[in-house]
Amino acid sequence: MPEQISKEKAILVGVKLKRNNDFDFDSSMQELRGLAEAAGAEVLAAIVQAKDKVSASTYIGKGKIEELLHLSQELQADLVIFDSELSPVQLRNLEEQLEVKIVDRTRLILDIFSQRARSREGLLQVELASLEYRLPRLSGIGKEMSRLGAGIGTRGAGEQKLELDRRRIRRRITDIKAQMGKMGRTRELHKKQRNRIGLKVLSLVGYTNAGKSSLFNTLCQMAHKSGTVQVEADQRLFQTLDTTTRKIRLNPQREVLITDTVGFIQNLPHHLVAAFRSTLEEAVETDLLLHVVDISDPAYMDKMGVVEKVLEELGAEKEKIITVFNKADLLAADGTMEGSRYISARTGLGIDKLLNELDTKLFN
User: Fold this and answer.
1) d(C-alpha 357, C-alpha 80), whole Å
2) What pLDDT digit, counting tens, does each position of 15-37 carry?
3) Sequence-ordered list of residues with C-beta below 8 angstroms from that of 159, at least 6 positions apart, any chain
4) Alpha carbons 137 and 91: distance in angstroms, whole number
5) Fold entry, domain 199-363
6) What is the pLDDT of residues 157-166, one digit of tens each?
7) pTM here?
8) Residue range 8-162 in CATH 3.40.50.11060
9) 207 Rama class: left (phi>0) / alpha (psi -120 to 50) / beta
């Protein structure tokens, strides 16, 4: 029987800026807990400080640092996770004063991506984002790694790569970009071939954990020749990283390609957006975009806004976007659900109507 790896014990830290509303902050902290758990941590406590602005040197104030130091010692925490991206100066000062591993939101998301990526392109994209994040933070990182060992925040670029000098890391970044450039040209050739034979492409996009992969599986079970589940789907954030494409039949005469993509999230690290940009751009350049929304989530409107903003930045055409409200089976039935795009990937509610609409939109 394999030895069970114990979870790292984490304390969450957030700064509630007075210019932001309560909902944004509470939603972000709740999401941070989900991210920490997705990375494999056990969340012991959360500390919040209300401030007009963050400290340039330590992010939180001296009093909160003392409180955090005592709490981390009392709970024997392995790491402290901040709900923001820390500057190299903030990161270094916090590590010196707290004597515990410090992980910011960006590093946490990079860690999750490094765990989930499987394809060659996905692994390269995550490594690129990790190296570009770590490059300005290399000062003292060898000492940090030797003191703190492995675990959350140390994956992605790998321990060995973190000890490379800046020149070698920059050379590796250049090499990865060249490899990704070749992959991009290959994708472009495939796109031209699809266009030549008139094969339409449909992409699923949406906030992480909205049910894209579950919907992808349901559509494949109903309309793919295998009739089986095609991707792994569960409640963990960022379950899907690598793009998966399958051919499905909308009716006896017509087939289309359907693509499952990485989910979006608020404050998605710019390093990741840059690294995944070519993949994301390819996803939005399809014939139709299915924006999957978790209608059972109280924050669904805000999350819709996050996705719509990213799609706009990527140049998606609004007329190609169809918004569908997933997990409708979790809502109490009422009149507002009739005639709208309410579906359930779990129960199959509304899927037949959705397939008919997709057929009409793509071919009429």
Assistant:
1) 48
2) 998 876 655 788 889 889 999 99
3) 145, 150
4) 8
5) Rossmann fold (3.40.50)
6) 555 555 557 8
7) 0.79
8) yes
9) beta
